[in-house]
What does this fold into?
Amino acid sequence: MYSGPTSGTCRRPPASRQPNEAACPCVVSVSDADKLAVQVPDSAVREAVIGMYRSEPKIYARAVSGWFAGWRWTLVWATQLLFYGLAWVPWNDRQAVLFDLGSRRFYIFDLVLYPQDFIYLTGLLIVSAYALFLFTAVAGRLWCGYACPQTVYTEIFMWVERHTEGDRMQRMKLDTGPWSVNKILRKGGKHAIWLTIGLWTGFTFVGYFTPIRELWAAAFTAQFGPWESFWTLFYGFATYGNAGWLREQVCKYMCPYARFQGAMFDKDTLIIGYDSVRGEPRGKHRAQGRKTDLVSAKLGHCIDCGLCVQVCPTGIDIRKGLQYECIGCAACIDVCNGVMDKMQYPRGLIRYDTENGIDKHLPVAQRLARVVRPRVLVYTAVLVLIVGGLGLSLAMRSPFRVDVERDRGALARVVDDGWVENVYRLQLMNATERTQRYRIRVEGLTESVLEPAADISVGAAQTRWVPLAVRVPPQRAEAAGAGAHRIEFVIERVAVTTADSSPRSLREKSTFLVPR
Ligand code: SF4
Ligand code: SF4
It folds into this structure.
């Protein structure tokens, strides 16, 4: 039976607790312990310390400005203009980028992809993954800090929060203060704007799968389909929840990349690090900058102002060393550089550097030379090979596709004058944006004829099923003998311009059956 204390008394030193930590997770009540059914022998300890679930203290990140914050905002604008804007760009009387699941066609500017072209999307994902491996090995978590949707939307949502509730201290005061009209208006306004951004994001996301102009018109006539409604709301609330509420929890506990990116790191990967040799021992400096005698005061350059912790969106202290929670946003660099400027110390107490660079104080030339190392060369070689192969395959991609099916109802039959006939169905897929004409002939059995023999026309980005009969005269069928004989359908594009260098013909194998 559990024999711990009946009421929880936290044994952790008060200094180790967060100021706004509501309840200590190491305290276990009798009812909790009963539920857990902890079996502790009488001779064992009198108290059980079980920290299974710990509520995370809310992080009030302080606003920061500086060179890296400027870059992050540049990336926020670039990615969001691309995401929100691209869905509205017209191209050849349609949307430039549209993943039309209903008609099973993906349009990416001039490219029209069919389900059979799924390999290219797979290739694109592999290229993205390898590019991420390469950039992570060289430059650490640049993606996380500047371009990841979670970072980008959190940045936008935090901007809204600062403009509705104020900066760090004002938000803390508002949260701990009683409810008032001011608090309701500020919090209500913030959530209203967050929800609007979330829903607009959900709408834009769905607009890449359903033509966005039709979707926009449907929004005003309440004719949203069930799937469009579901995905708009789902993606909208996911954005609202992830960027508004979960924030750093997504990076710390949900993101798989955060878990495995450590495997791509080594001591020559660019990280954000604190120069402890220069900064320690930390402590308050009585006079400003060079007026303080740091040697006699036994102090480093860190004035222990705590600003680098206050601006950190994941609430960590970079001075404790590299931690997996660090998303590489460089907010601590910006704020610490500001402190160093005020103290008249050189910038870069917290900086982008490699572990070797910080530990060994390597010159810049040596740090750059270490970029070229085996794992980087392997990632680069694989990436170049995949990109090259994908590009070549796309350049040689046929602008039309053909599938041949035998008519299962009548495998082979003898028709007028003893001619042997097999019936097929050809599926012609025109992957261009113009109507195309195709000429079909059959090879493999001499004297065979095709009916109908006329050219087949297929509309822009359309698919057409064509019934065809292959006939063989009686003496030829007799000479070939009973059984299956290999034939090939040859499909040629007609009236192709000389400027068009894409393949003009395709061959599809099939069989011709001669009955006994
Ligand atoms: S911001 Fe710079 S000076 Fe201030 S505590 Fe952090 S490392 Fe030290
Ligand atoms: S430690 Fe610095 S770079 Fe890392 S998440 Fe915190 S503020 Fe961003």
